[in-house]
Design goal:
Number of helices: 10
Structural class: alpha/beta
CATH architecture of the largest domain: 3-Layer(bba) Sandwich
Radius of gyration: 21 Å
Shape: elongated
CATH topology of the largest domain: Glucose Oxidase, domain 1
């Protein structure tokens, strides 16, 4: 028990980058470091609003509890789809190569999040501690399963965030088989595509399509800036009617003036 507690403290302390632990941050390419760093400074709901306005209403997964509280998830989706076991198809699939939980961990790039679509089936686990350790060594940021993981106690010790329906002692067989890799998958009520950006907190995971990422980031950054001003006004005693959800004319002028003063001089 002392060992587990000590490792858990180490893992928690490793999250100095607010969702970007050192084993991820230090391996990220410069472009990903810039994107993930911007995300780490934002509130999830601000990004959600921007993604929703871009036409993606089914973008938030809230059916899966996180393994850790107080730990964010930021990363890029790498997807695996499982199907109910069928002997003839399983034999053909597994003759073609290793099970896809092994493949996905071995091929993971820094910042990747393994996303396992098990159709909500928790009778077998989609992956376990050994493959997850390889994921972490590769710079993986987390895992999500619409299903179950095994070795939950060991996975809890690792410096990643994990979302799942529940734990399971069984391996993938006899109930399931890995069938498709880097294809669109369904997690809860959300379609996740390989390459989507994921941002998770205690209450769920936001799926940000790569096609709208930059636009959503810029809009969310503007929202966070405005809401910081609105919070300040409310805390100073301003009535909410002229502050939120929209600034009235006089408060908008105050906001514009404050932004102008804060803008870097060129």
């Amino acid at each position: 028990m002392l060992r587990v507690g000590f490792l858990a403290i180490i893992a928690a302390a490793a999250f100095a980058q607010d969702g970007l632990p050192p084993h991820v941050w230090n391996k990220l390419a410069a472009q990903d470091r810039e994107i993930f760093g911007r995300l780490a400074k934002l509130e999830l709901e601000a990004i959600w609003s921007a993604v929703n306005e871009a036409g993606y209403q089914n973008c938030f997964i809230n059916e899966l509890p996180p393994l850790h509280t107080g730990r964010r998830l930021i990363g890029r989706a790498r997807t695996v789809r499982y199907l109910p076991n069928r002997p003839d198809l399983r034999e053909r699939l597994y003759k073609a190569g290793p099970q896809l939980n092994y493949v996905s961990s071995e091929q993971a790039e820094p910042g990747d999040v393994l996303v396992f679509d098990a159709g909500g089936d928790t009778r077998s686990a989609v992956t376990g501690a050994m493959t997850t350790r390889r994921l972490v060594a590769r710079g993986g940021a987390g895992m999500i399963a619409d299903g179950a993981f095994r070795d939950v106690g060991q996975i809890r010790e690792l410096p990643i965030q994990v979302y799942m329906r529940r734990g399971q002692a069984s391996s993938v067989s006899p109930h399931m088989m890995s069938a498709d890799y880097q294809v669109p998958v369904r997690i809860g009520n959300v379609t996740v595509m390989a390459g989507d950006i994921l941002m998770g907190e205690e209450h769920g995971v936001l799926v940000i399509p790569a096609a709208v990422l930059e636009k959503a980031l810029k809009k969310a950054e503007q929202t966070v800036e405005r809401e910081a001003f609105q919070k300040k006004l409310l805390e100073q005693g301003e009535p909410i009617s002229g502050v939120y959800p929209r600034l009235n004319e006089s408060n908008q002028k105050r906001f514009d003036a404050e932004r102008k003063r804060a803008a870097p001089k060129r």
